Amino acid sequence: MTTTLAGMTVNERLAATGRVELWEDAVRARDRTAMIALLRRIAVPNPQKVADAVLADPVFYGFAPA
Known about the structure:
By secondary structure, the chain is an all-alpha fold. Helices cover about 55% and strands about 0% of the residues. It contains four helices and no strands. α2 packs antiparallel against α3 and α3 packs across α4.
């Protein structure tokens, strides 16, 4: 069965592809390059913008402050 990512949120895409832990590790490390790479793998439009938004306000997205 093929999972279609269209119409899913970023979190749903991460969960459906088994990449939640990788994402959380990248965010906690503030590794923008790794974050963007993961977002590209799950076909998120504008991955740079998403990564920058999370890094600008990690608490809003459920992560500890920098």
